[in-house]
Amino acid sequence: MQIAKKHSKNAVTYFQRICPGVKLERVFMDWCWWILAGLPFQHLVRIMDCYFHEGIKVLYRVALVIINLFHKECQSNNEWSPDNIKNDIGNALIKFCKKIPVSPTKLLHAAFSIRGLSSTYISRIFMKTEMILKSRSVLNNGSKQLVKSRSSDNLPSSQSQVNIQMMSHTLTIREVSVASTYIYEHKYISNG
């Protein structure tokens, strides 16, 4: 939602105004489904082709364009009037994507016209959000220790990965993880 607030400020403000009882953060958590489940197949093929070449920033760009297009349609089309969408904006966004009024070419052109949305910026926002969520978890649980997050490959969190990369330019994150696990197992388990 932070990225949308920066790059689609008018749309976010509009949706916050017409949907006061709805937590837009929860709606924006489903942004990936707008693309993957909502868009027509011909749009999805072109987007995925760009995604495989450019990376995750393509999906963020497309999601921002969807928000902006939906905002424009809500202001000009009776089907998407505030009264029709205010109670279920999440499903309205998916339905809008299914009937998206632009071609795949126009959608991607608009997506790549967004400036200042780099992979570095996205990673920075991701890490900042992750740190905020971890600090909330600590405050809510009353614990003084951070919960260690692990990826599906059992790798450290993104912040830990950055710290490891700063310490070691010779080993990859996976190699450091394997080495530390090996040391831990042999030092504490074999002696215990």
Unreliable runs, pLDDT <50, ≥5 residues?
143-147
Over the alpha carbons, how many angstroms does the gyration radius reach?
21 Å
Topology pattern, helix = H, strand = E: HHHHHHHHHHHH
- CATH class category name of the largest domain: Mainly Alpha
Q: How much helicity do the residues have?
A: over 70%
**Largest sheet features:** none
End-to-end distance: 48 Å
What CATH architecture of the largest domain would you give? Orthogonal Bundle
Tell me the count of domains.
2
Nearest-integer average pLDDT: 75
- Give me the secondary-structure category: mainly alpha
Number of separate helices: 12
Number of strands: 0
Determine the CATH topology of the largest domain.
Cyclin A, domain 1
**Share of β-strand residues:** under 5%
> In one word, what is the shape?
globular
